Amino acid sequence: MRLHATWVWLHTSPLPWLVLTLAAYELGRRLRARTGHPLAQPVLVALVIVCVAIEATGTSYAVYRSATGLIAFFLGPATVALAIPLHRQSRRLRGLAVPMLLGLLAGTVVSTAGGILLVEWCGGGETLARTMAPKATTTPVAIALADRFDGIPALAAVFAILVGTLGAVAGPTVLDLLRIRDHRARGLALGAVSHGIGTSRALHDDAAEGAFAGLSMGLTALLTCLVLPVVAAALL
């Protein structure tokens, strides 16, 4: 009876899942600090641990989402707080507005068009292409755009998280191989490709890089909302 009661509590109480999520993320932080390995990203480590736990216990996503609502609530203020490092780096924005906007616009067009063309090249349908197109924006924006343009919102969230995680893991290494050293350029690239997850990685690497990644993340979301209808109309 005690075992059954414990199992029921694990399934119904928000505390175990909340603690597990925070502990998994902290484990990822410690692994990154100790090893410095590209795969030791807190979000990736937490994602793997939590997914395994959900699958092992047979817990539905709705239950997990409800249990970790407190974390989701604080994501909003945390995103707004990204304006603080940007403000501290505001002097480095001088003279960069036009080239920055042109670069982000080009990147947004390539990202949305590339998502659509990749799906078509792999033989996917139009619905999947519309779902894939906003993959580089932050998850709430990707969900809203997929819903607006007849995609699959839940799958758009998966694509956004996967792309963000991949960008945070591989992005800095790719930039190093390309010999891109300027922290402003690195931050803009990471924020444009891997939104909040990449911005978190950039903030860990350098304050200026994180500030420009936060700016890039916001501008990319805005530009995607403007560009996606045009690109989708041209390619679909």
Helix tally? 12
Return the domain count: 2
Amino-to-carboxy terminus distance = 58 Å
How much helix, percentage-wise, in residues? over 70%
Instruction: Look at the structure and give the mean pLDDT.
Output: 86
- What is the gyration radius calculated from CA atoms? 19 Å
Find the structural class using helix and strand composition: mainly alpha
The major sheet is characterized as: none
User: What's the β-strand tally?
Assistant: 0
Choose one word for the global shape: globular
Low-pLDDT segments? none
Order of H and E elements: HHHHHHHHHHHH
Q: What portion of residues belong to β-strands?
A: under 5%
Describe this structure in words.
The structure is a single chain. This protein has 236 residues and is mainly α. It has two domains: 1-74, no CATH class; 91-236, no CATH class. The protein is 82% helix and 0% strand. It is built from twelve helices and no strands. The protein has helices spanning 2-12, 14-35, 42-57, 61-67, 69-80, 83-88, 97-121, 126-132, 139-148, 153-177, 183-205, 207-235. Helix 2 (14-35) runs antiparallel to helix 3, helix 10 (153-177) packs across helix 11 and helix 11 (183-205) crosses helix 12 (207-235). The chain is globular, with a radius of gyration of 19 Å. The N and C termini lie far apart (58 Å). The model has no long low-confidence stretch (mean pLDDT 86).
